Structure formats: structure tokens, C-alpha cells
Amino acid sequence: MDAAQRGARSGLAVAIPGATGALLIWALFAGGGSGTDATATLGSAAVIVATLLMIGWARGVVVFPRLDRPGLVAVVAAALLVAWTGLTVWWSIAGDRSFDALAKGLVLLAFGAVGLAAAALPGRPVRALALLLAAALGAVLLWALLGKAVPTLGPDDAGRVTRLRGAVGYWNALALLADAALGLGLWLVATVRERFGRPLGALLLYAATLVILLTQSRSGLVAGLAVVALVLGLTTNRVEAALLALLASTPGLLVAGWAFTRPALVEDGGASAARVSDGAVLGVLMVLGSIAVLVAVRMVPVARLVSTRRQAVVRGLLGTAVLVFAVGLLGLVAAVGNPVTWVTSQVTSVGEVSNGPGRIGQFETNSRTVWWGEAWQVFRANPAGGTGASTFEIARKRVRSNARNVSEPHSLPLQLLSDTGLPGFLLGLAFVVGVALGIRATLGRLERDERAAAASLTALPLAFGLHSLVDLDLDFLAVAAPTILVCAALLGAGRPAAARAGGTMTLGVVVAASAVLWVLVAPGLSSRAVDAAYRQSSDADLGAAASSSRRAQRLNPLAVAPLYARATVAGLARNAGAAETFLVQATRLQPANPATWYELGIFRYVAGDLCGAYFAFNAAYTLDPKSSLFYEGSELDRARAAVNDPLQPACGR
Length: 653
Known about the structure:
Blueprint: H1 3-30, H2 41-59, H3 69-87, H4 95-119, H5 125-149, H6 171-190, H7 197-215, H8 218-234, H9 238-259, H10 263-266, H11 272-299, H12 302-308, H13 310-336, H14 339-348, H15 368-381, H16 392-395, H17 412-445, H18 448-457, H19 459-468, H20 477-492, H21 505-538, H22 542-555, H23 561-572, H24 576-589, H25 594-607, H26 610-623, H27 635-643
Helix pairs in contact: 1-2, 1-4, 1-5, 1-20, 2-4, 2-21, 3-4, 3-17, 4-20, 4-21, 5-6, 5-7, 5-11, 5-18, 6-7, 6-8, 6-9, 6-18, 6-19, 7-9, 7-11, 8-9, 8-19, 9-11, 15-17, 17-18, 17-20, 21-22, 21-23, 22-23, 23-24, 24-25, 25-26, 26-27
């Protein structure tokens, strides 16, 4: 290696962690919820960083790890799953949605590439990544708690929905991040010996406990317990860590307990004045709780207690756990009688659990069992390839039992089955197995300090995996992107450097990155062009509106929104034939989407073509018989009556 390469590598040793931290913060704070808002911006940034890293690898200034067999299985399975997601566009019932899913998958692959490069840095890269993630998660949790204490800093609809969700936008996703923070907090208090490691770790544990409870997330509680059990099991000084965790989490339990007594803080629809006043008190209590945590970890001689009275400490910890379990079980029996019968009835219930502290003790699935059954029906009807990535919301309408909409079945395995068929599910399973075996191998080969940091990082993939069994976390880049980055880093940690890529790779990487960037930005540009077309139409600038709608269709030929815009513009131009043609094109583009047929039916109904309207409405009804659009006396009923009119049937005799 020449001097220029050594200088470049020393600079990258700072640049790569900086880029990694920036992407993590961006994803956590602006991941865009479950939609595609952040796919173009955050995704493009991740792809650009990954591209620069690959070019650096080709030039010999960036190192990527040479993965072992489980790591290769995971990486290949992930790449093939994204490719299969893209292939489902071919037969998807909503190609634009599947194209969006492909874009998200490519973004996650880019985050994975960044994670691999971060794992190959000199020094202690796993420890550095754990510190970065701990700081980022701490900032996310702090901001969420500030939003609860000061409502003006929280979400706009905090008065309507009081469950804590912070910048992520979804309470269960925020609870997932808090679960990961538990693992990192345990590592900080038990392993990091720097001056500020233990107090900051204790504060992270305190904040994570408080956030999990205020999200009222039942999956967050279960996953949090699993994370604590795993990280303690992988920690050498687990007794000391458990005692410190108890000291740090107890104030969080007490503060959350007080919050649960204030309806304005934990129940939907509270008065604004009460939220402000109770939030101020909560803020004071949170500060006092943090002070109590710092005093406890400072004053209680944990290390001496564990070294001199280890057995007594262990018995105390176990006794506390047994006592909490026994009290909870007795309370459950007193409240519901036979707990087995009660749990069975709760799980099989399809009722909605209202937001409030009481939901934590409920086992009702919020209709999840219904959605899981619908996903299974969709898969059984399309086992080879599913209905296309991210199309469950449309595919389920044929079999749903009510008019309620849901974007995903709230179970990643069933989502893969219904959307991508058996091949997608098997590729997802191969990825999970590869990651699990790869992380186990990583924990076995790292030296002590790096191993402890890696053990704490496993909290994130574990929490994500558990949550994804009952939720839609893959839709949120705020949790999916950091998880993939951490998984990749854990797979590559401690591995030797891979052989330098050939210099000819640079051109291929640039071409591929350019194509990926187009995949990421084209749908957003198309949506903007559609918005412009409607805006120009309202300003009576029909020429510009027609141009914008045509541009929107060129940018995203899989979407029906540009066709709707073109139909609107043609209608305003009094070209009814062209308008109907565009709506017919939409039904041909997405013939299994009831919305396209309904739009065509409405157009024909307004135009007086009741015969054509009936057939369009009937197609929509066949695809979505439980839609709220088809009520008694709706346009479908009126069109049907016109068709069946014995004197003047709309379709003729």
C-alpha cells in the first residue's frame, strides 16, 4: 500500500463512521413513517454513500470483509429477495406499489453495504457502532419524551392519539427502538468503563423503560424482556448488569405509573389544557427520575455487593422477579377468573383494544388474527408468486369481512407469503437463518470488548424479528434501515478483508447506482407532476396540466394516478372520449384493483352511461364486496336498477 492509499484510509476511518452516524440519525428521525416519503431522499443518500464505498473498494482505499458461509447466505438471500420483489412487478395487481417496495429494498441493501464497510474499519469498529447507535437511540427517546412533557413538541394529533410515538410516527416502532436501547444500556452500565459510560447507560435504560410503557406497546414489553434476557445471557458480569438495570428502570416504572393515572396523558381525546398541565408535571417527574437514577448508580456499591454477596444479590433479583410474576398472576386471576380461558377468548377476539394503560394487560390482537387469515387466503390463491409486493391492502379486499382498510397483515412471514409467494418467504427465511448463524459465529470469534459490544447490538435484530411477527416494521425505514445496517456490521465484524475489487468495477457500480437512483426518485417526481397537473387544472391552464400529466405517466407508467390526472384534464377540456379512454387504460393497467373500476363507473354514471357504469361498478363490487362505497341506494344500485328496468333497460333489450 502506497502513502496515498494509507492517507485515504486514515481519512475514511473518520468519514465512514461519520456517514454511518448521519444515516442512522436521518433514518431514525426522518424515516418517513410507513409510506415512501423518505425513500427518495434518505434512500438516495444511502445509495450514494454505498456507491462511494464500492468505488473506494475498487481503488483499494476501502475495505470490505470477506464473509463466512452464513454471512454469504444472508447477503445473497437479501439480494435475491429484493430482486424477486422487483420481479413481482411483472404480475403484480398494483405494479406501482410493488415498484415502491423494490425501491425500499434497494435502500435497505445500501444500508447493508454501509454496515459491512463500517465493520471492516480498523480499531474497534463494533464498539464504535454500538456507541453511535446508543447515542442516536438516546436522542430519539429523549425527543419522544420531550414531546409528551411539552405537547407543542409532539405530533400534531397528540390530543387525538396519546400513545407515545415520537419522530418515528408509530408507537410500536418506537417501542422497538426502545427495546434495542435496553440492550445497549445494559452494555454501557456493565462493560464500558469510561467515566461517563455507566451513568449514560443507566439513563438510557431509564428512558427506554419509560418509553416502552408510554407507548403502551404489548409487543414492546415482550420483546424488551427477551432483549434483556439475551443480553444478560451474553454478558459475563450479568449479575452486576441485572442489578444496575433494576436500579435504572425502577424510577422509570414509578414515573410511568404516575402517568397512567392521568387520563390526559394516556387516553385518547383528552383536553388540551390537561395535557399541558399534566405534561409539565410529567416533565418534572422525568427529571427527578433521571436524578434518582444517577444517584443510585453512583451511590449503590454494585460491584462490591456482587463480589462479596453474590448469592444474596442473585436470590434478591430472582425473588423480585418471582414476586412480580406472582403478584401479576394473582391479580389476573382475581380480575378474570380462569386465566387460560380468558387468554384464549382474548386471542380469538376480533375486537379493538382501546388506547389506555389497561391495554397492556389485554391479549386481544386488534383484528390481527383476521388479517393473518386473509393473508393466508391470498397466499393459497397465489402460492407461486403472491399478488405482488406491497399489494396486500388491495388483494385482501376480495376476502375481507368488513370495510376497514389495512396496509399489511401485521406479520412479516405472512406478508411475504401473500405478497411474494413461497419463493419470497423462503428467501426471507434463508436471510433470517443466515443472520442468526452469522451473528453466533461473530460472537464466537471477537475478543472480549468487541464481543460485549456485538452482544448489545444483537438487541436490535432480535427486537425487530420479534416485532415483525405481529407488526409491519419492514414498512418503516426508521427501524428497518438501522436493523439491516447493524445486521450487516455484525456479519462482517472480525472477518478478514476481502480481496480488492477490480478497477473495472467502478464503471459498473456507477451505472448500477444511477439506475437505482432513478428507481428511487422517479415515483416521487411522477407524484409531483400529478399534483402540478391538478393545480394547473384548477387555474384553468389546461395545456400545462396536460403536459404535467403526460410527464407523470412517463415517469411512472405503472401508476394509475397519472391516468386519473389525464382523465381529469381531458374532461375539463370537454373531451369525454379521451377521458374515458384514460380511465379504461387504468382498469387494464390494474384490472384486479377495485378502485380503477369504481373510478370508471363514476365517470360513466355522471356521463349518463348507466349500462357501462353498471358493468364497471359490478367489477369493483366483485373485487371488493365489503366496500363502504356500495351501500343501499348507491350508484351501483341505481345503475343496476336502470339496467333491470323492464320498460327502458339501460343496456337495451
